Amino acid sequence: MNKTKLQELSKLLDATVVAKVLTGAEWQKEGGEKHPEAGDAIQTDSGCLMIARVNGSELHCVEISTVLTPLEKRLLSWAIRQGNMRPVSAASDLERQARRFGEWVQQSVAAGEWRAEVPERMELRNRLFDGMVPFLLSCEQVEDKEPSYSELEKTIRTYIPEDTLLIPLREHEWLVLTSDSVLSEADADGDEEIGHEETKELLASLAQGLHELITTEWGGECHIAVGEPIVPSENVVRIVATLRETTFLGRKFHVGMQIHLPWLVHLERLLSGIPETVRSRFVEEMMGRPDLFTDSETVATLDAFFSMDCNVSETAKKLFIHRNTLLYRLDKIKNEAGLDVRSFNDAVLVRILLLLYKVTKRK
């Protein structure tokens, strides 16, 4: 609420009115309920506190230094809610529901309520069903301008049109929920039953296609994390937190990667929790040659080798080099670092060292 409106409201109520920003926890401490909405009010020792706008985890309130009558409170609450509503149409009504739902998800994630179920009061709950694929889309540095809700939804529906929901979360961040039928449609083999590993491959392929669509249409830097099918009414808060963490870990440990998969960052999640001083000391103590990972060819070889599950023949194919050339490079690493990546224990150590080196030496 801007300064002019605050002054008008102050004159109307003949009381001091000031703007105030609270977190959900502070609102509850004042006596408010969980998952507040615009227009909600609580009585305080000095008067009345009413929410003017909800912006993610922030509650923009007005503090009124007088006790309002029940009628005044209802009228002011009604006016605030009307001001927060958009013109009603089929499209804008869905956007309003999606934004309201996204605000609830934001508040739940911020409060650490990962197991929270979607409340009945959420209108969008009726459009959630078992077996929806979640994508978390984060876009930055768009070349022209950020797309509107309707523009982005229309673009996404050209790729995954059936039962797709676009839910705004934070600035430049959206959750996309779509039917798991996209998996069978993307399965080129047309198998009646898709295995677990094949499901992961299809999800990665869908995320890659969505990324190409968004960057082609809007430009800029875009990151997409995707999870396995969920029951959104029960797991939407948890999956948003998980996909955010996945994107964070991917960007931290694998610079240049735009597609982030939760099942590929288990080790990164563990290493991220280690204090930076411990990480740096471990790298220094274990490295036979401190400059080993500064060689781009060595890093590319190791990245390919680990991505191919330490398979020499497949790694050589991926790098477009002869098998003997790859063996020469691996022997060189063994001689210089004292670690043989063809040995399981040494491979684990080198994998950890490479990940830690990327984040400790990048600073």
TrEMBL record:
Xref: InterPro entries: CdaR-like_regulators (IPR051448), Homeodomain-like_sf (IPR009057), PucR_C-HTH_dom (IPR025736), PucR_C-HTH_sf (IPR042070)
A Pfam family it matches: HTH_30
Domain PucR C-terminal helix-turn-helix: 299-355
Protein name (record): Carbohydrate diacid regulator
Lineage: Bacteria, Bacillati, Bacillota, Bacilli, Bacillales
